[in-house]
């Protein structure tokens, strides 16, 4: 086990994933299934429109000065792109544009891969969650919520049936 392995942080992230998945299955998924498909997708995209928070990893004092600037930039810009794609998805869905669903696919694939990459790089290269400073809540709480909501988007996108219904 690496010296920087931090059991409390790992348990915190695991707890956030478990709680996010349980709450999503009990409360969120039943509500989304009852909504028209475009409305359900727009609601989930709205949650991701706040991904610009990741830009704070590049703000002096928000994270430790020892945090890799390359990691901070990768996380920050990746999140900004995800937020922009989420906003584009919301606009396309609201206006019922013919390319709305492909825009949602682009947002969801990008957003999911961006988060998984950030976790991978964080675990393999950063390893010390203390370097995240005030931003520690992002991987410990916000990212599990985001990843669970990405799964919900995939579930809605992969369901067959009329475009207007999520279920």
Describe the fold and architecture.
- The chain crosses the membrane at residues 6-29, 41-63, 75-93, 100-122, 134-158.
- With 167 residues, this protein is mainly α.
- It has one domain.
- It has helices at 7-34, 37-48, 69-94, 100-126, 137-158.
- Helix 2 (37-48) runs antiparallel to helix 3.
- It is globular, with a radius of gyration of 17 Å.
- It starts with 6 loop residues before the first helix and ends in a 9-residue tail after the last helix.
- The model has no long low-confidence stretch (mean pLDDT 92).
What is the total domain count? 1
Bulk shape? globular
Largest sheet: none
Structural class: mainly alpha
Average pLDDT value? 92
Helix content: 55-70%
Order of SSEs, N→C?
HHHHH
- The Cα radius of gyration reads 17 Å
Query: Kindly, what is the distance between the CA atoms of the first and last residues, rounded to a whole number of angstroms?
Result: 44 Å
Percentage of residues in strands: under 5%
- The residue ranges in which pLDDT falls below 50 over 5 or more consecutive positions are none
Number of strands: 0
